[in-house]
Design brief:
The structure is a homotetramer of 505-residue chains. Chain A is mainly α. Helices cover 62% and strands 4% of the residues of chain A. Chain A folds into 3 domains: 279 residues, Up-down Bundle (Fumarase C, Chain A, domain 2), CATH 1.20.200.10; 82 residues, Fumarase C, Chain B, domain 1; 65 residues.
Chain lengths: 505, 505, 505, 505
Amino acid sequence: MKIERLWGSRLKESPDEAFIEFISGRDVRERPPCDAVLVPYDIWGSRAHAVMLWKQGIVPTEDAQKIISGLHDVTSLYQQGAFPLDPAKEDVHTNIESFLIEKYGLGVGGKLHTARSRNDQVTLDMTLFLRDRNLDFCRHLIALETSLLAGATAYAAVLIPGYTHHQHAMVTTFGHILLSYAESFYRDLLRFRQWHSLFNANPLGGAASYGTSLPIDRELTSLLLGFEKPSVSSLDLITNRWEAEAELSHAISIMMNHLSGLAQTLILFTTTEFGFVTLSDKYCGGSSIMPQKRNPSGLEVIKAKTAVAHGVQSSLYALGKSLFVGYNRDSQWTKYLIMDLIHECEEAPHIMAAILDTLSIDRERAHDLCRTGFITATDLMEAIVNDYSLPLRQAKMLIERAVKYSEQKNTDTITWEGLKQALEEMGLALALTADSVINHQDPATVVSRRKAIGGPTSDVLLKAVDAVTARVREQSEWLQDKTARLDSAQARLDDLEKDLLSHKA
Amino acid sequence: MKIERLWGSRLKESPDEAFIEFISGRDVRERPPCDAVLVPYDIWGSRAHAVMLWKQGIVPTEDAQKIISGLHDVTSLYQQGAFPLDPAKEDVHTNIESFLIEKYGLGVGGKLHTARSRNDQVTLDMTLFLRDRNLDFCRHLIALETSLLAGATAYAAVLIPGYTHHQHAMVTTFGHILLSYAESFYRDLLRFRQWHSLFNANPLGGAASYGTSLPIDRELTSLLLGFEKPSVSSLDLITNRWEAEAELSHAISIMMNHLSGLAQTLILFTTTEFGFVTLSDKYCGGSSIMPQKRNPSGLEVIKAKTAVAHGVQSSLYALGKSLFVGYNRDSQWTKYLIMDLIHECEEAPHIMAAILDTLSIDRERAHDLCRTGFITATDLMEAIVNDYSLPLRQAKMLIERAVKYSEQKNTDTITWEGLKQALEEMGLALALTADSVINHQDPATVVSRRKAIGGPTSDVLLKAVDAVTARVREQSEWLQDKTARLDSAQARLDDLEKDLLSHKA
Amino acid sequence: MKIERLWGSRLKESPDEAFIEFISGRDVRERPPCDAVLVPYDIWGSRAHAVMLWKQGIVPTEDAQKIISGLHDVTSLYQQGAFPLDPAKEDVHTNIESFLIEKYGLGVGGKLHTARSRNDQVTLDMTLFLRDRNLDFCRHLIALETSLLAGATAYAAVLIPGYTHHQHAMVTTFGHILLSYAESFYRDLLRFRQWHSLFNANPLGGAASYGTSLPIDRELTSLLLGFEKPSVSSLDLITNRWEAEAELSHAISIMMNHLSGLAQTLILFTTTEFGFVTLSDKYCGGSSIMPQKRNPSGLEVIKAKTAVAHGVQSSLYALGKSLFVGYNRDSQWTKYLIMDLIHECEEAPHIMAAILDTLSIDRERAHDLCRTGFITATDLMEAIVNDYSLPLRQAKMLIERAVKYSEQKNTDTITWEGLKQALEEMGLALALTADSVINHQDPATVVSRRKAIGGPTSDVLLKAVDAVTARVREQSEWLQDKTARLDSAQARLDDLEKDLLSHKA
Amino acid sequence: MKIERLWGSRLKESPDEAFIEFISGRDVRERPPCDAVLVPYDIWGSRAHAVMLWKQGIVPTEDAQKIISGLHDVTSLYQQGAFPLDPAKEDVHTNIESFLIEKYGLGVGGKLHTARSRNDQVTLDMTLFLRDRNLDFCRHLIALETSLLAGATAYAAVLIPGYTHHQHAMVTTFGHILLSYAESFYRDLLRFRQWHSLFNANPLGGAASYGTSLPIDRELTSLLLGFEKPSVSSLDLITNRWEAEAELSHAISIMMNHLSGLAQTLILFTTTEFGFVTLSDKYCGGSSIMPQKRNPSGLEVIKAKTAVAHGVQSSLYALGKSLFVGYNRDSQWTKYLIMDLIHECEEAPHIMAAILDTLSIDRERAHDLCRTGFITATDLMEAIVNDYSLPLRQAKMLIERAVKYSEQKNTDTITWEGLKQALEEMGLALALTADSVINHQDPATVVSRRKAIGGPTSDVLLKAVDAVTARVREQSEWLQDKTARLDSAQARLDDLEKDLLSHKA
């Protein structure tokens, strides 16, 4: 007999693959060497550097041709999974340079490192890597926004309790809740965009931190690597090789906080006690012992990873504190910190979107809860303020008493009797009736009255959905533009390489 | 006999007042109640809310007139220091509302709170407060940039050792160092600007989190409070009353990290051992026991406050994690955290600017150090690469040997003898001379050769200064524009109040 | 009309004073200068130091007598609130020394600081202060343990759902939950005790960090200040003036985490949806707008303060990282960090104890929930394993199916029909009956069967209560012993002072 | 040509292997699946559980025999590297249980999980794993103490400057510095010991969190797993599956802070500017471009890892905050956090010990520095206080002036002329001579006078070394005792298994 999971006969659908990967973490999965993901970026950087050295006459044509060929060989090997990083050679840079030297000798391979240092090289590699991952986060968030905005529309009229302090506050709709998260994640999108505008500058050419006397052309390498411009200081980005990491980690941390809040909210909504949201079997976990379990494991894991993000932020700040000017080896650890964090969190928006897309709501249960916990007391109070011009403070005292007296009769909506007793006690004579008291507490009615911008009434909510949708579309266009620019930088490099390779030495 | 400080006879100048306040911390200074600084913001918000309630017919003219008058009374009292917050009345909101109720009765004062909750009120107050402080940070950073750019210019040709790993790397100039920090702080400036664009939205009207049924006009209050627009969700900004705080705290944390790095760098430069920077007596502390002390206390305190910033960031993240939807009381503590942090750090850029403006450099000592620790080895290597087309890797091995052999003779620059021995060992015949070896290691010469963008050569450096200066000027204009917009919002509110007060009830 | 709070007519009891202080935070309350709380400790330290200087012949009798008298004067003034700290005099140390110099002249007052530095003085003051606060935390935790153990006993048989992943897991008792927290807080108690054993060493005599050439007697001052011994290195405790703070902050952080978990648990239990715990009105907050609110504000505030603790820990770690040997001014900020944290958290265990002592449980509601969410499925499975020797894995598959089939019939306990269908499908023939299926899922029955150490059965639980009670008693005795030792150190100092004052000069 | 490292021709010795591994981090090294290290612990736990189930009659002899044999098979495979964890099977627990079920069928293998859950199983595995690692840290710290105490002895009379605020304070010895760190690390040792006493309790038997109805014997499994006792609550340790991790991470964080401080101190001592410490080539790194470099990479990496530790602590705290009672999936991530941290830091004490054991000191350079920066001013002042009974405050003013006047003559020790001018200015007539001024500032003399406990005088220092040595020895004995207890628990399990296997079914 073969078993793979110790639970599941209760569930009607098998868990989603990506979901299982997300919640399994690193129990049975290894983390590859960090530099493995840098190979393509290190090569991109070296190709641009080599072409520039050639254009500047620092490396002669024939040598440059060999170096470029060698780098293409590494790319091929890498793509076939046949360029393992040799632990005897410190890092990705040494592995690649050694390959060239072993293949073409020191006289050729030994020229690639002219006018650069590992300090600017690793800063470059990380900038290229992070730039791509950062754009990925933008992409994932746009997808999550799409789910949330679709949900906000679909559930625009689905009544549920609104809470403050975990207590019943005022009736709202599930769509209103989802729109509020769409708004939060929109700010996250802007944070990732800000990352791009802060850090899309070319560190290559800073050399060890203090520049080089060789006649390099930093404008050219900027162009070939898709950067806006070369950094204006050779020193700044190398001393601060923790800041782009800390900036990204901050954007991730806030995004994860938003996800964790939505996760916690859904976790409570899916308890037996709240009971008005059910997750799809595809996004539930079971127990090794308890046969009845359908655990919201994905949502819990999101919370765990949020804590991971916070810690990475702490580490990056602490690492970057009180650093003496110039490169410090301390910075090397920023690589592992940010790579791990990206690995942990990059799928989180996707998992959340999938959970949202597949959950179901028990509208009846939700509606029943909208008649408990005196949740419509504020609406009744506002109706009285509106109809009888009662000062708010007086109206509030009135309804507080009405709640107390109604509660004494074991109800948890305000009764006409309770309100009458309060009116009498406060010496107020208002033309209210038993019917109006009931009507002013009808869940659908009260929601339909809250019409100011930002409120839950369907019309207002759908206008908000439109507004956020339009803004997300703008970001989507920005993202496409940036992606296209990177593609054209690559094309320009390809062209220059063709020139070089076709050149007679 | 009267003494105030237990040290100081050694110093020629008295410490700066602001500096003493900065380094004394909270030993002998109290922190006032946090809501004290919110009084003007709470009043601004209440005035805008009251005028709007009147315009919308929710509060009748006569009542609105009294409320506005009462709020102006509070302002006057506050400005005279005669509006202490009564601890028996929970917070600033209750204190002010109680004042109105006590003065005009529940029938008038009890109407101000119509269609709002403390939830949106405190969110509003904090947004207004943080918006001002955030613009202040922009202002302080622009001033610091001015100091750094002036320093970069003044010290553009002052040679000092450049370091990596705390070890001698390559000769640079003090101006080159300062320009690199100017570049770092420029990103900080952009971070504070980003805060403004993310959070300048009006939360007022969200009420308890779920809107109100009363016919409020959120566009109007936005206009009167200097906001771009009302928030599109009543819920989002209230649930996330930690995010604007965490965003600001992040901007502060990174800025403090940059300051701490510059502080640590200056601390080392002022040790007896490095000894080429001397701080002004005005920015030094003494010891209670050691008569000789001139301590860089301000720089150390900057490092301490950097650690404080990191912790506040941790707290705000942790506080905002996994929050159930809707307001949670937890958020109240975000107020104290961010207020304390602002208090600790707002003067830091100013103190740093003052320290930079008043320090002096021992150029001779600095120049001497530029001839030790084999600091010009890389320049010599690059000269050989350039002159003899030697592969970089080979040239590096050559110079490594030359260093080793020179060191064995107890020098710490490369000697012609050491180099010769290395050339022979490697079988290289290059037309080098004893003179050229000396010349290639001359500190001024080597710096003058590093001409690529970002490097320390004076021309290049001064162009970089110009570039950053131009960018700072743009930010300065942005700042003026934003400040003007807030002024005109206030003017618009004054006008509407005049209308109201002149209106016949 | 006079109002103090904008809510409350709903509540039957007024909020507790200490509770209001706890949840109001710093809105309307100032934080006094930090050194104010150090006055008594600074005086204790100076008295011991002065007596020692006299015994060693470093300060002559007549001068020592005056110094002691002056210090007693300061104590009197302080106790009458008439020794305000003058901000012109840096800190508590300078304030007190200046008092002596102003009163007795430099020739007398100027001798007290002989053979000490502010470095060892402030380390001493903080050690004395923290030692007291640390013992207070022990005291508060013992009181909380008492509440929890009383609750565990009182609610030993009160059935409630037990949860994992926020989902129904297995029925347990409220007493079982409370006992588990008693066990957690017991470890906290041991952490605070560990603090005492790590840091009860005398730093006085380290002087600036490197000792003094004057013939001081550190054994004597240790005795007079209640320390086990003088520190064996003059340097260690001064360089590490963040470690005792970080240790205490860690103990507080873990304690707060435990409190925050208990708080979150109670918050959920008091929602309308769970609804089986009701907090006393004395420990509830209201809303400024919503009339029905009874918010668990104290519990939320505990969570907020937990986040504050985490941040302080981050700050203390970051501040203490990579410090160059010897005193650094950075350390000054550790004072504010730990003092604020103590201020925020010292009442937290007390507030939690009060909340526990006064809450009430709706046993019927809790019992009803123990029949939902298939919460007894595991017990039924174990009964089958036990009665029919079925392999656990097979039994689990059986019950998973039974859950699925029962759920399809819209029940949320396992039905005999559902189980039969599962038995048939798996080809199992077990002598079960409809009655036994019901009986094996009876909430009281299932709890009574879980008898292993650690389980919820009353007998077992009450034995656990006894075991923890006995351990808490031991800690209580330790606490009394330590308190007595401090008292006798003070008495010894009083005696020596009497000798001195009665001595002829 | 083959190259492995891009630097090194300058160095006389090759870097140490362990050192290279330590500083290379994860660039070219993978991190294996986390559960891989848990295999032996999971098996130990399962063996103990199976034997107990058999003794209690829950699993029949024949089945128990097979289960035990199967577990031994897994051990053999694991030891041969032939038990890879299958990612299709969630975790180590499922992998091992599946092995048994595949080998012996569900009827046998399916019985092992009786009366336990993955919740208590993973808590158990982690407790066993962390218990071992924690004892390892004790072992490593004892080794580091040995190095430090040897160094304190060897360098007891080697004069170096003592610093406060990074400025020259008072002359001390290198031995005095090392002893101070020995004292700091001793507290670390006690922290790890405390971990053992807090967490050496058996969680097995808690099952899902709420116990089991099957008749298990938790005393027996405690005995077989080397625990003091079973946990007194089935729930506490499972809800708090972050606390043992956070406790260990705290101990590591403080230890790393101490290491980072020592690292930073050595980094400065090895700069060209301080220049009195030289690290062995075996513990230096080079540069990819700068030929002269001998970087203190190991010391920098220690600082980086310190920042990593702080972040892990933040994560663990945040993860453990506000957790609802009972197991939450969030806890799974505590495993990765603490495992990564252990991996990063376990070698740090060893690397530091090796660096200390192999460094060399330039005594002449150090001694020269002891005559600069007015470093002996305090000693001169104390000599005057002692010889002339001058009040300390007056003597300090005198010497402050003497420093000022001497400095004006460009010296940086106090001259007789400078002192005379100060004496005259203050109207003091003391019988000082030019000779005595010189003598009172002799570096060796001043150190020999600071004789109080904790001071740098050789006799005093060596006594301190003895005291710490004796205490370390006690901890060493404790460690041996604990290790022996674990061995005997294993032996007891072996014996019971022999009984079982020899038993007739």
